Amino acid sequence: MQPNRATPQTRDYTVTRKKTESDNIMSFYLNPTTGACPDFVPGDYLIFTVPDEQGVPVKREYSISQRSSDGLRVTIKHETAPQDKDVPPGIASSYFHSKLSEGDTVTAYGPAGKFALNQASDRPVVLLSGGVGQTPLLAMLQALAAQDSRETVFIHACEHGGVHALGQEVRDLQSSFDKLTSHVCYANPRPQDGGYDSSGFVTRALLQQLMPKTPAEYYLCGPGAFMEAMYALLLSLGVDEDLIYYEFFGPATLLKPTRSKSAPTPQAANMPQITFAQSGMQVAWDPDIPNLLELAEEHGVMADYSCRAGTCDTCKTRVTAGEVEYPEEPMERPGTGFALLCCAVPKGDVTLDI
């Protein structure tokens, strides 16, 4: 039976434990300061509000990697500044790693998410992760181990042992969950590394060797390049795209190729007209497209985005004419004259300042 998610709400959590998992990844054990720990669906995240260096609040999502005895665990990679680029390190991850201590309080909204393990299914499951993208998949793996009825394959890829987090946790689950096959792939293993099964990259041959013999559900999470490669390999192996579920770590994007563009139809003339002011483009609204962000992407208009779920405000855009509405409510609506493109649709003709 699919578990019920608690109604998402803002809560304060106390950091009861801070644990180093690898050279660049730490886990934070969180207990609500008041009330019971909220239920969540494996794959869910919490949306944290933390201050930047100037004290301005920023929002970031971090997946729940485990339900502890009376709280939740999130596991966070410290995003350092890229070499040779004038870019600062990750604001929120730096706050968690460097400034948040045991006993401190942090505010988060949730649990929330759309990347959920289907626990009502009896199909085999393949969990395929890259780097810290394993965190929501670990919560799924724990649920599958508790269910103890479905063939499960857990494939994890990372650079080397120094950045491999939570490997012992998976090995412990494997010892008690006999339907689990685990495979760890290090791209560039170090001489001192152990505990991995292959080196290099996850290949088509490796996937073919490990994937179940009957149709399975595939859950993917990791960086963009990893996700694109895995998605393409799975399709090449004949996996039904409707059985592939995914979530990105880092700015979100879409894996499915954009549709080919065709000549306008008579119906398009009767649709609301969407003007992208800075891009100098006007297009007809397509009711088959779920939101204004995807409409912009469909026509090559660049818009900022991250979560694609109405939680982070990255896609907040000024509306200079017209109105929008929200078939699915965002966490918080933007102020008058703005739209969250990732979940907004037009009520009529609309002009956007992008």
UniProtKB/TrEMBL annotation:
Residues 8-118 form the FAD-binding FR-type domain. CDD domains: fer2 (cd00207), flavohem_like_fad_nad_binding (cd06184). Gene3D superfamilies: 3.10.20.30, Nucleotide-binding domain of ferredoxin-NADP reductase (FNR) module (3.40.50.80), Translation factors (2.40.30.10). The keyword NADP applies. SUPFAM superfamilies: 2Fe-2S ferredoxin-like, Ferredoxin reductase-like, C-terminal NADP-linked domain, Riboflavin synthase domain-like. It is an enzyme of class 1 (oxidoreductase). Keywords: 2Fe-2S, FAD, Flavoprotein, Heme, Iron, Iron-sulfur, Metal-binding, NAD, NADP, Oxidoreductase. One of its GO terms (molecular function) is metal ion binding. It catalyses: 2 nitric oxide + NADH + 2 O2 = 2 nitrate + NAD(+) + H(+); 2 nitric oxide + NADPH + 2 O2 = 2 nitrate + NADP(+) + H(+). Residues 272-354 form the 2Fe-2S ferredoxin-type domain. In the C-terminal section; belongs to the flavoprotein pyridine nucleotide cytochrome reductase family. This is nitric oxide dioxygenase. It comes from Parasedimentitalea maritima.
